[in-house]
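Forum: Protein Structure Q&A
Topic: Joint prediction for protein chains with partners

I've read a bunch of threads here and the consensus seems to be that you should model interacting components together rather than docking separate models afterwards. I'd like to see that in practice. Below is the full input, 879 residues plus whatever partners are listed. Could one of the regulars post the assembled result?
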Amino acid sequence: MPAYFAKRLLFLVPLLVGITLVTFGVMQLAPGKPTDMVTDMNVKASAEAKERLIKLYGLDKPWHVQYWDWLKRFARLDFGRSFRDDRPVLRKIGERLPATLLLNVSSLLLIFLIALPIGILSAVKQDSLWDKSLTVFVFIGFSVPTIWLALLAMITFGLKLGWLPISGLRSLTYDEMSLGAQCLDLARHLALPVLVSAFTGLAGLSRYVRNGLLEVIRQDYIRTARAKGLPENRVILKHALRNTLIPVVTLVGLLLPDLIGGSFIFETIFAYPGMGRLGFDAIMARDYPVIMGVGTIAALLTLVGNFLADVAYAYVDPRIRYQGK
Amino acid sequence: MSDGKQTLGSTLRRIVFCSTPVALSSLLFLSACRSDSIPQPAASATDAAPATGDAYVEASIADASYLNPLLASDSASGNICSLVYNGLVKYDKDLRLVGDLAESWEVRSGGTEILFHLRPDVRWHDGAPFTADDVRFTYQRLTDPAVKTPYGVDFELIRRVDVPDPHTVRVVYKEPFVPALESWGMGIVPKHIFSAGDFNTHPANRRPIGTGPYKFLEWKTDEKIVLTANPDYFEGRPRLDRYIFRIIPDSSVQFLELRQQSIDSMALTPDQFKAYPEFFRHYNKYRYPAFAYTYLGFNLENPLFRDRRVRRAVALALDRSEIIDGVLLGVGRPATGPFPPTSWAFNPDVADIPFDPVKAKALLATAGWTDTDGDGWLDRGGQKFEFTLMTNQGNKPRELCALILQNHLAKIGIRVQVRILEWSSFLHNYVDKKRFDAVILAWSLSRDPDQYSIWHSSQRKEGQYNFVGYANREVDMLLERGRREFDFEKRRALYHRMHAILAEDLPYIFLYYPDSLPTIHTRFVGPEVAAAGIGWNFREWFVPKSLQKYRYAS
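Posted by a regular:
Agreed with the consensus. Here's the joint model:
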C-alpha cells in the first residue's frame, strides 16, 4: 500500500501544474489588464506611462513566457509580488491566514457540534415531528441569503440589543487591553460571523449523518446487536454511529481547502480581514500574482485533502485496501 | 484614480481626471446653503474651548495600497498620504494654490522657470531636516523609468531641477505650463529614507515617514490604519490625537456602525442621506458638489450626431430634474458644462438647458427628422432615428440614467437601445475604438481646470480621451492658452469662454453634478464646507474636553 500512495502522491504534481496552467489561461482571457486600474480613463497617465507600467510588470511578454517565468519561480516556492502594492504574495496570504483559520475552525467546530446530534436525532426518530422540524430548520439555514441574515443579526444583536459589536475582528482599543479582555473582545467579535456561518452550513453535514445512519441501522449487525438485547442508545451510539462516521472522516479531508479559503461576501459584510476578500479584490484588480498564489494554494490543499481522505479511509475502514499495481 | 469616494483629505490631494466603474452613488456633493435636508445638530459643541485629544474614526470602503504619494493611485491611499505627506503647494478653502512646504514661489522667464522658496523649519517625522534635495529626489523618482508611478506626465515637461541652496528649488520647463504648479502638490518623499533600497518595494511604502500633520502609527491589513498627531508640525500640532481609518467594505454595514456611533464619519449614499432624521441624532450631514459630472457623450463621427441641432434637441428632450430625482434621489444638480459649480472656472452665466420636448421636436423637424410614416418614430430619407446608448455594468446610477433617457427620447420619437457592458470590454473594445453611438460616463475632475486631454482636437486617437471626436478651433486655442496663462483673471476668462462654447456646441450633454455627502459626529468642532469640500481645515478640528470619547497617553 505505501507504494500505491507514493504513486498517487507523484500524480498530484502534473495535476497541480495543469490546474495552474488553466488558472493562468483563464486569467489571461479575462478582459482588462492589471494596469487598467491605474491608467483607465486617467488623463494624467500618458501613453508612455502606460507602456512603462506594462513593461515594469512584465506584461509585454507573450503569455506562455509569463507563465513559464511564474512556474520557475513557483518551483522555488516564490509566488512573486502583488501588482497592487508590490508586497510578496506569500506575506499577503500569511497575514490573512490566522484570522481566516480562527473564523473557519470555530465555525466548523460549531457545525460539527450541532450537526451531529441533529443528524442522529433525525435518523433515530425518522419522519417524526422532530425529524421534520429539524430538517426545515437546517434547510432554512441553507437557503437564506447570508447577506440578509448577517445584516439582520447585526441590527438585532448589535444595534438594537447592543450585546455584540457589528463588524470587524477586534475593537479599536484592542492593543490597550489585558490578555483576558483581548480574548473576550475577539470572542465577542467572532460571535456573529461564527453563528451566521454555522447556521448556514448545518444542512450538509446533518443530512450526511442522517442518511448514513439510516443506512447503517438497516444492516444485519445492527439487528444482531438489538437481538442480543443491547440497550438502544448503545446500539446507536456505539455500533451504528461509528460506522456512520467513516464517510464523515473523508469529509473532513475534503474540508481542508475550506479552512483557509474564505467567503468574499461573508468577509465583506463583517469587515473581516480574511482570504476571501484578498482573492476577490485580486480578481477585480487583475492582480495576477495574487490570483495565482491564492488559486494554487487552494488547488494544492484540495488535492492534498483528497489524498488524505483516501489515506484516512483506508485506515479507518478495514474493508478498504488499495492495491499497488 | 479617485474611485468615487471623496473623503477627508482628498481635497488636499491632487486628483486626477478619471471615470471609473464604481457606482456613482458613492460619488459625493454640497450646496452649502440649501436648508431643505440639513438638520441642525441638537447638541452642538460649538461654544466650547479648543482642546487637544480624542480620535477621529473614518470609515473607508477599501484598504490602502501604497502609503507613498508617487505610487498610490487609489483614493484610500491618497487620503492617508495627504495627512502624512506635504507637497510644495496645496489648495486652500477657495481652491486657490497656496504654499505648503514652499513658503512662496516666483514664476519667471515667461513661465518656463518656477523658483520655490522652501520653509526652513520643516523636519521629517524621524527628525531629519527637510531640504531642497528631497524635492529633487522626488522629481528624479517621478521620472525614473524603474518607478511604478502613473504621475510622470506632468513632470516630463521639466528640463531640469536645480538646487541653488538647501531651501530653494529652481524648476526649468521646456515650455510654460500652468498646471505644472498644481503638479507640485505631489507629496515630497524623504531622500534619506528612500535612497537605500528599491523604491517600489521599499518598507517605507507601508510605514511612511513624511512631513505632514499626522505621523504613521500602524496598519493592520484590511482592518485599520492609525495615524497620530505630529507635535512638531510646522503649522502647529493638530488638535485631534489620532486619525483612525477603519476599513469597512460594505456601505450598509458602515451605516450600521454609524448608527452605533462606532465610526465618526462616512460618505453617505443618496438613500442613506435621505434616511430617517433620528439616525443622524449624533451626526451632522454635509452636502456639496463633488468634483465630478456625469454626461451623455455623442460619437461626433456618427452622421446622426454631427448636426448640432440634433444634439440640442436631445438635450431639450431630457427632463434632468427627473433624472436627478430618479438616479440620485434629488441629491445632485443639473450640469451646465465641464466644471463643477465650486470651481473658479465654472461660468455662472451659462444657462441650464430647459426641458422643452415641443421645441426639441421642432428643432428636429428643421434638421429633417419627422415622422412621415406615422409609426411613432422619427425618420429622414427612409431611415429611422435610432441609436444605441452604452454604459458600463455594475454602476446602478448610470444604468438607471440610461433607462430614463431611453424613455424621454421615446417621447419625441427617437428610438434608443440600451446596452450595458462589462467595464473593461466597454472601454477597450467600444469607447477606445469609437464603436459607439452614445455613451453615459462620468469624469472626476482635477482642481486645475486644464482639460486639454478631453477636448483638444489632437487627442482623438485610439485610447485618448477625446473619444467623442470633438474638434473646435476656438476651444483648441483656449485650451492651449489656458496652459500658458499664469495671470489668474485672464486664465479664468479663458475657461469661462470654453464653458460657454461647450454648452452651446454640446459634444456632451452634461447631465448632472453629483453631491458629496459626508457625515460627521457632532462632537467635532470645526468642520466647515468650502469650495474645497470639508476636510481643508482638519488640523484645527477638536472635541471639547467634556465630550472626548477616546483617551491616549501622549
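DSSP finds 15 helices and 22 strands in chain B.
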